[in-house]
Write a structure and sequence with these properties.
mainly alpha, about 160 residues, globular, about 65% helix, Arc Repressor Mutant, subunit A
Length: about 160
């Protein structure tokens, strides 16, 4: 078998090249708004979560950050007034990060241009069937390699901390 030309190697290479290319284009647009890509990602995940909040451990599971990395990013966002932290009512060891009105305003300023770039360089290059298949495939792989990525939202809803 010619492993060097294996389609699986090609798939990984294309995924990496695509991700890096998109992040470069998108990161420049986010930087124009005074945020790093990871700060934007944290705000976006909070903004898309029920009641705009996630446990710190869930932010770590949903991003490329370690627990201490999440703490550092949230520290910066809190310093800038974009998030606050609240204690979990059912687990004294857990903290929730909550997007503030200022954080939502910053997100609202970034999103239109961000969505435009996503459409121009990513989703707009696929027909609806290709996009649906890609989303399905990405979720299957994501759930396998990052099984905790969705757990925080479900756990918080069950605990009554966030709405559904």
């Amino acid at each position: 078998m010619d492993v060097i030309n294996d389609a699986r190697i090609t798939a990984m290479g294309l995924l990496a090249e695509t991700y890096l290319g998109l992040m470069s284009r998108l990161g420049c647009q986010v930087a124009e708004h005074g945020l790093s890509s990871i700060e934007y990602e944290v705000l976006l995940r909070l903004g898309r979560s029920p009641q705009g909040q996630l446990r710190m451990t869930d932010l770590s599971a949903q991003t490329s950050l370690t627990a201490s990395g999440v703490t550092r990013v949230v520290d910066r966002l809190e310093r800038d007034g974009f998030v606050t932290r609240i204690a979990c009512p059912t687990d004294r060891r857990s903290l929730y990060t909550v997007i503030s009105a200022s954080g939502r305003a910053r997100l609202d300023a970034i999103l239109p241009g961000h969505v435009e770039l996503i459409e121009e360089w990513f989703t707009g290059r696929l027909d609806p069937t290709e996009l649906e298949a890609l989303l399905h495939g990405l979720r299957v792989v994501r759930d396998a390699v990052r099984p905790g990525a969705e757990a925080g939202i479900e756990a918080a809803a069950k605990a009554g901390v966030v709405g559904s």
